[in-house]
Structure formats: structure tokens, C-alpha cells
Amino acid sequence: xxxxxxxxxxxxxxxxxxxxxxxxxxxxxxxxxxxxxxxxxxxxxxxxxxxxxxxxxxxxxxxxxxxxxxxxxxxxxxxxxxxxxxxxxxxxxxxxxxxxxxxxxxxxxxxxxxxxxxxxxxxxxxxxxxxxxxxxxxxxxxxxxxxxxxxxxxxxxxxxxxxxxxxxxxxxxxxxxxxxxxxxxxxxxxxxxxxxxxxxxxxxxxxxxxxxxxxxxxxxxxxxxxxxxxxxxxxxxxxxxxxxxxxxxxxxxxxxxxxxxxxxxxxxxxxxxxxxxxxxxxxxxxxxxxxxxxxxxxxxxxxxxxxx
Length: 308
Hints:
Strand content: over 45%
Largest sheet: 8 strands, antiparallel, barrel
Number of strands: 19
Order of helices and strands: HEEEEEEEEEEEHEEEEEEEE
Shape: elongated
Structural class: mainly beta
């Protein structure tokens, strides 16, 4: 019997390489196939839109169907009187990081699926269901756990792709707007303020009056001025008798702890912005307020001494 010659070490290496390379190619090819399988086009692509208002984060997760030539959406594709999620595939969902008022409803923090009850001549109904992972064909029945509010649709320029957006934002809230086809809906959302915007007369009586105000380091504003703390209506203000830092004349004082008030920038008759890094901290002697320090973070930038 004739045996094949023994392979040399070099030959074995080359021979092994021929076997190893095809074996390595198999998982690589499978991985490429898996990647291709996940990177697919769907009829209604997923999207999300997020807005933060005074520490409350509002997020809407939804799918975006296209009209694709369809013109009779409301009353046709989506029948009057039916319950419909304003999206596609998995039901549209809204997530609130803190409690808020949504279309007049007091909604706790959490995630809810979103539905509309469509009507031809009457207001539609907004439905928030705590079952946040329903499929769009689930059409949930009315339950005690749902939150419902009337919403009035309005005509919009024809919108090809279903869209949720936040077209305006204020310090107190925002508007969540839906558009698709020829109809739109605006949902007002009011957040809970992180700082109380109003005060009672009893809460602030000890702080009212005038103070000699002096900057710790002055280069571009008067070093000394008179700072008056007064209550207007249900809000507390501090006013300088001369402009400071260019044109600054007043600030709204927002309660931020015991004898401590955060800075509120008041502009054009309304609160414009707030800062927790700027604070007036009042000092007492024998129970009576005798002055304050004006701090930027922990640094004292000015002081006030109560006038006789």
C-alpha cells in the first residue's frame, strides 16, 4: 500500500489556512445578512419628538404613515365614530416625566397610549390609556382608568406625512400639535412650576421694605442704590431705584427655601426666565429681617441692608 507523503510544516500551515478562511467567512456572511434584515424600509417609519418645559419632559413616540395619494382619510379610511390612534402600527404614546395638565386633564407622570374618537360634526375626543403598548387595531373600550377630553379639529394645508410637533413653548407649558391630511389638532399642556410663582401677604410680610444695595465689585453699574421689595397682586418683586447691569430695573422673587428667593427675569409684563443659581438670601436678627446677600451660585455678589 502506498501512503501519501507526510505534509511538511509549511504545507500544513497553508492547508489549514485554506480550511480556516471558509469557516471564518460563514459567520461574517451571516452577520451581514442579519444587518441587512434589520435595515429595512417600513411603510410607516417610527419617530419621536420631545420637549422640556420647566423641568417636565414630554415625549411622543409614534409611527408616520404617508398619504400616498389617499385623499379621503377622515370619514373614509378612518370612519366617523371610530377610535383611532393618530399614527400607525404600535399605538402613539405620550410620556410625561412629571404630572401635567393635558387638554384640561390632570395627568400623572407616566406613559399612555394616545387615541382619538373621530366625529364628523362634533368635537373629537382625546383618549389617554395607561395601557401604553397596544397595537393600533386594539381600539380600547372606555374604562375608568382612561382619561378623556374634547378636542376641536381644524383644517390645515394638506400634510403628506403624519406629524406631531411642539410649535410653541412658554415658561408654563406648550402646545402639542398633530397634523395629517387636511386635519390638525392642538393639545395644550400646562406643567407644574418647579418654583411657586405666587405668594401670600403673610408669607412675604417680613421681607417688604427698602434696602441699601451695594455690589461687591462694581465696574459698569452704580456701586450703591436702593432696592425695594414689594408685593404686587400675588407676586413679589425687587426694584432698584437706578438701572443696574445696563438696563435691569427689577426682578421677580420666587420662593426657593426658608428666607431664600430665586431670581426671576420679568420682561414685557410677564415672567421670562428663572435662575436657581441667582438667589437673595435674607438674614434675621431677633426674628426681624435686617438684610440679605445676593449670591451667584455660592459667591456673594452684592449685599442689602434694611433702611431705617
